[in-house]
Write a structure and sequence with these properties.
This protein is an alpha+beta fold. It is 28% helix and 32% strand. The strands form three sheets. Strands 3-1-2-4-5-6 form a six-stranded mixed sheet, covered by helices on one side. A hairpin with a 4-residue loop joins β10 (136-139) and β11 (144-146).
């Protein structure tokens, strides 16, 4: 079985030698990917059954070294297919970040894996924010942040992963983009208190650029898009501990920024209610 999808102008194909695998593969496809016909797409991932037992993953007909048991193959596929797409997109900039919508603005939490983005995004959503992504901020040249509703993975205490679909987190088809209002470059540090400081817009730009997927392969496009995006945002950087402390601290910071914006006539936004 096979299917080809288009996302942000890039075509990607999934195929499987065993029809019984297809349901698992479809769980990896975000709900906003559209089906297309492309005989030779630039991205093709294929899962095959091995004659000696187990499974293997191929990318454009080349074998990818990974575990041969199905959960390991699927986990490798989950990570690789989205990166391959993000590296090829030229009409938007993909930044490694968690994203939520708060009122009429987007809060972007840039950072690499293991910085605690997913747990913070999930807690912000529980507090009333709208889910956009736990992995990529998709930013277009007009400075708007779009959702990337792939399934969220949360690491449990025993090291396993639990998956939540975008729909489970409240994402809805047609959820529109929002202007970038806040950048919170904060990472989880066990036992830490909330320790963040304000940064300039220029420093916010550098933080986004450092976490961009195509900053080295498409530097001009990345520079242009991110320069536009940071024009009207506020930025903090630092460390956090438990989300039960981090979420109220973020709300306090946003409230302070809202107050400053209200003095300038820019309006206000809050976590609750969802709007």
């Amino acid at each position: 079985m096979q299917a080809c999808y288009r996302v942000w102008g890039v075509n990607a194909k999934l195929s499987a030698s065993d029809p019984g695998l297809w349901e698992e593969l479809l769980k990896i496809v975000p709900p906003d990917w559209s089906s297309v016909t492309d005989p030779v797409p630039p991205i093709h991932f294929r899962v095959e059954s091995r004659s000696v037992g187990g499974f293997q993953l191929l990318f454009n007909d080349s074998l990818i070294p990974c575990a041969s048991w199905l959960p390991g193959v699927l986990e490798e596929l989950r990570g690789r297919i989205h990166i391959e797409v993000a590296q090829r997109v030229r009409i938007a900039c993909f930044v490694h970040a968690g994203v939520v919508g708060i009122g009429h603005g987007a809060l972007v939490i840039p950072g690499p894996t293991f910085h605690g983005k997913s747990s913070l995004v999930r807690s912000l959503v529980a507090a009333g924010a709208r889910f956009f992504s736990d992995e990529f901020a998709v930013i277009t040249p007009d400075g708007l942040v779009h959702s990337y509703p792939r399934a969220m993975s949360i690491r449990t205490e025993n090291g396993r992963k639990e998956y939540y679909s975008a729909a489970d987190l409240g994402w809805e088809p047609g959820q529109g983009p929002l202007p970038l209002r806040w950048i919170a470059a904060i990472r989880y540090l066990e036992g830490s208190d909330w320790d963040c400081r304000a940064l300039s817009k220029a420093q916010g730009f550098l933080t986004l650029y450092e976490n961009s997927v195509a900053g080295t392969t498409a530097p001009i496009e990345t520079f242009r898009i991110l320069t536009s995006a940071v024009k009207s945002c506020s930025v903090i950087q630092g460390t956090r501990g438990d989300v039960r402390e981090a979420v109220p601290a973020l709300q306090k910071w946003i409230d302070q920024e809202n107050y400053a914006r209200s003095l300038a006539g820019s309006g206000t936004t809050t976590l609750n209610p969802k709007t």
